[in-house]
Design a protein that fits this description.
It contains five helices and two strands; from the N terminus they run H-H-H-E-E-H-H. It is mainly α and 178 residues long. It starts with a helix and ends in a 27-residue tail after the last helix. The relative contact order is 0.11.
Amino acid sequence: MPYVLGLEVPNILPDVGFLRPAGRLIWFTLIFVVLTVGAILVIRTPKKSAEPATWAATIVGAMSVWVWITLAYAIIPHEWLNFSASYLNFGKDSYALRRNVLIPTDVTRLAVGESIAAGIYVVMLVLNVRLFVLWQKRKVAEPATDAAEGDAPATGGPLSRLRGRTSAYGRPVTTTEA
């Protein structure tokens, strides 16, 4: 008998009510919330310096954003649609609202489930834009001023003109005396 991977994955949620059928939806939502709270905590702490980010930090940041966007726009709405269609029986054959004086048409439970999925997309988009704006406006730590370096008088000579110069990357120019 062939085994399906989805049947062999243990679900540690208790078999109470809807917890076990909504297991993946719950776990992925919890992972999403942890990533979002982590991102907000990272955004709230100021950058350590005004220097550009390193290659490794940029790759880790890009990978984190990719995981966040995959959870927000693919996995969570998909798991909601699966849960609503299978466990909650949100299909075309049952109605959430019937036609009456105030409502000119019948509203199926399938339409309600898909409307909730569309609402998830809207909430994720608003949260996505808000996090990007917060990231762009995050504070940079103030540079530490070194009193001893600023008080030293210029002694003259060929290397004195290099003091205070910076490279194209904003780092101080260093030279070796030969």
